[in-house]
Amino acid sequence: MSAAGTAPGLPKILVIDANVFFAKRLTEALKKEGFEVTHATQSAFALTSLEWDTPIAILCAINLREMGAYELPKLLHSDIKTAHIPILAMGDGGDQALMEAFRAGCDDYIDRRVGPDSIATHVRSFLRSHEEGFQPTQMLGASDTALSGSLSHLDLPGVVQMLNHSRQTGALHVNAGSLDGIIFFDLGDVSHAEAGDMIGDDAVIHIVKNCNNSEVGVYKFVPGATAATRTVLRSATELMLDALREVDEGEHDVAGGGPQ
C-alpha cells in the first residue's frame, strides 16, 4: 500500500484498484479535490489498516480477483468500527450496475469510464451530500425547498437509498404513467407510503416495482413534510431488496413464458 499526498488534516480516501496506472490518475484527481489518498491493489491487505488509519470513504473496483466492492459491505458493516465508512463501487457501467451495487450494500456506484476527474468530482459531491444533507446536483430543482428529477436519469431505489443514507425527513412524490405515489421519510427511515388503495410496506414495494427502469417517471422530494401516522415497519433496504426481487422474478417469468 502506498500513500499519495501527506498533507495533515485532509480527509482520506482509500482507493482499491488493481489498475495501477488508472489509480495513479484517480489519485491525482482526488488530490485536486482536497483529499489525501491511500491506494491498494488488494482489498484484503487494505482492510488490515482500517482500524488505525480510517478513511472517510472507500472507492473500490468491482472486478478485483479476490475481493471486490460487492464483497466489502458484509465485512465492514458487521464491525461497529467500520460500519460507518461509505463504500463507493467502481465498474464499467451498465443499466443494472447501480442496482447490483445497492443489492450488495454499497453506498454508491460510479462508472469508471467517465474518467478520473469526473469520478473525483462525483466523490466530492457524494460526501458533501452524505455529511451535510441530501443535495445531489442531478436532483436540484428550481426551488431550494424541493428536489426533483426524472427517473430516466436515476432509478427510484437509488433515490430512496440516498435519502435513507443522508437521514432526510420529508415526502418523496412519485409519478410514473398511471402511478401516483408518495413515500415519507423520518430521519432517513421510510415511515409511511401511499399508492392508490395501498399503504405501508406494500405501497413502497408497489411504487418501486412500477417505477423500475422507467423512462417517463418523475419524482420530487419536499424536505420537512411529515406523515400523520406510521405505516411502514421494515427498513428501506429490506423494502428495496424485496421490490427488486419481485422485479427480477417478473422478468424471469416473462422470459420463460410463465405467468406475468
UniProtKB/TrEMBL annotation:
Pfam families: DUF4388 (PF14332), Response_reg (PF00072)
Domain Response regulatory: 12-127
Highest taxon, organism lineage: Bacteria
InterPro entries (UniProt xref): CheY-like_superfamily, PatA-like_N, Sig_transdc_resp-reg_receiver
Gene Ontology biological-process annotations: phosphorelay signal transduction system
Name used for this protein in its record: DUF4388 domain-containing protein
Species of the source: Candidatus Korobacter versatilis
Lineage: Bacteria, Pseudomonadati, Acidobacteriota, Terriglobia, Terriglobales
